[in-house]
Design brief:
11 strands, six-stranded antiparallel sheet, about 25% helix, about 25% strand, alpha+beta
Length: about 240
C-alpha cells in the first residue's frame, strides 16, 4: 500500500486479508443471487438487476471495511464520509452492455466537493486470465482540473492536451483501486473479447468533512436526489 505513490501519481492499489475475503463473498453473491435472475432477450431486466447490485450488503461491508477506512485516512482525509452513490459499471461486448464505456474524464467536476476527495473502485470479472475490460488511467493528471467538452457519453477532457501522460490499464483482482477525484480515467473495453466475458466494477466517492475548501463552499455537492413519483403507476397495469 503506497501512500507516496497516491500523492505522486494520483492513484494507488489497496488490499488486505479482510478485503480479499469480502470481495470473494460479493463475487459469490453476484453469481448466486443476481446472474441467476438474468433473462434472455430482456436487457431491461438485466440492466436493472446490475443497478441493484450496488445495494447488496456485501458491497457495504467492503466499502466500510475498517482496514480500508484507516488507509483512506492516511491519504489526508481527516474525516472521510461517503459523499456519492454506489455505482455499478458493467462492461462486456454482449447485448447487455453493448461495449458501452465512458470517455476520459475527471470525477471532481461532477462532485464539486472537497478537493482531497477520492474514488474507491473494485472489480470482479469472469476472465480466464487477468486481462480484458477494465479501467484506463493517466497517472499524474490529478494536479488540476482538465478542460474538456460535454458529449453524449458525458463530460470528456481534451486528450490532445494530455499526450505527454502515459496510460495504464488496471484490472484489480480482490483489490481496491483508489484514485484522486481529479485523476483522468475512462472505461477500457477490449473489443476483441468474446461476448461471454464481462467485467463488473463498483465505485463510490469519499469526501473529507474537514476540508477547508469544502467548508468555505458550505459543503455543497453536485449530487441531487430525484424520485420518479409516477413510476408506480406502470407497475399497476
Amino acid at each position: 500500500m503506497n501512500n507516496n505513490g497516491f500523492f505522486k501519481d494520483g492513484y494507488t492499489i489497496f488490499t488486505s486479508t479482510s478485503i480479499k475475503k469480502k470481495i470473494k463473498l460479493f463475487e459469490q453473491s453476484f453469481s448466486e443471487k443476481f446472474t441467476t435472475k438474468f433473462k434472455n432477450n430482456n436487457n431491461i431486466n438485466n440492466r436493472n438487476l446490475i443497478k441493484r447490485v450496488a445495494g447488496d450488503l456485501s458491497i457495504f461491508n467492503i466499502m466500510y471495511d475498517k482496514s480500508l477506512i484507516n488507509f483512506i485516512k492516511s491519504l489526508n482525509l481527516t474525516y472521510p464520509i461517503q459523499s456519492g452513490p454506489l455505482v455499478t459499471h458493467y462492461t462486456s461486448n454482449n447485448d447487455i452492455s453493448k461495449s458501452y464505456g465512458i470517455p476520459f474524464h475527471q470525477d471532481w467536476p461532477s462532485m464539486s466537493s472537497s478537493k482531497n476527495s477520492i474514488i474507491v473502485w473494485l472489480n470482479i470479472n469472469n476472465f480466464l486470465k487477468n486481462n480484458g475490460h477494465g479501467i484506463e488511467i493517466m497517472p499524474k493528471t490529478h494536479k488540476k482540473i482538465q478542460l474538456g467538452n460535454s458529449t453524449d457519453k458525458g463530460y470528456e477532457v481534451d486528450v490532445e492536451k494530455l499526450k505527454k501522460f502515459k496510460r495504464i490499464i488496471i484490472q484489480p483482482k480482490y483489490e481496491i483501486l483508489i484514485m484522486s477525484s481529479f485523476l483522468v480515467h475512462r472505461s477500457h473495453i477490449d473489443k476483441n473479447l468474446s461476448k461471454k466475458y464481462w467485467r463488473l466494477g463498483i465505485s463510490t466517492r469519499f469526501d473529507d468533512l474537514e476540508c477547508k475548501f469544502w467548508k468555505k463552499n458550505q459543503f455543497i455537492s453536485a449530487y441531487k436526489n430525484i424520485v420518479d413519483r409516477d413510476l408506480y403507476k406502470k407497475t399497476l397495469d
